[in-house]
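Lab notebook, bench 4. Still working through the backlog of constructs that have no structural model yet. Next entry is a single chain of 156 residues. Request: give me the structure tokens for it.
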Amino acid sequence: MLVVADSSPLNVLVSLSYVEILPKLFDAVVVPTQVAGELSHPRTPNVVRSFIASPPPWLQIRAPQANRPIPFLDAGEEAAINLALEIKAELLLIDDIDGRKAAIQRQLSVIGTIGILERAARRGLLDLRQAVERIRGTNFRVSDEILDQALRRNRQ
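Model written out:
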């Protein structure tokens, strides 16, 4: 499965040492150059900056050919949606609510960080309860209700 990733899921997965689930879940992960730039920002955690500075072989960094403006989105989200459309990605990894809405309006399938963790847990790649507890200890903006729903869906 070919997927395009926005910065938030990669930031969280790298920061929590779960990024290696991505090549086990997806055949190819592509990141727009704008997202790679966001992950390289000085305010980004060192571990994330190191990850994107020397990306693993399963991660491709590619600029979209065309960058059609999408109102209310930042450059990374806009580029991720445009690239996903361009390469006909089967899934867009994105957390931002406005970005998710814009992607769905353009007939893209989306999944966020919590959905990725749920998928990994169902495949036996991680313990979802432990992952949720680790997320609760970060500054990742997700409601307790969404985390609790994920645990209930997966009978944790």
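Notes after review: The radius of gyration is 15 Å. The longest strand covers residues 28-32. Flag for follow-up if needed.
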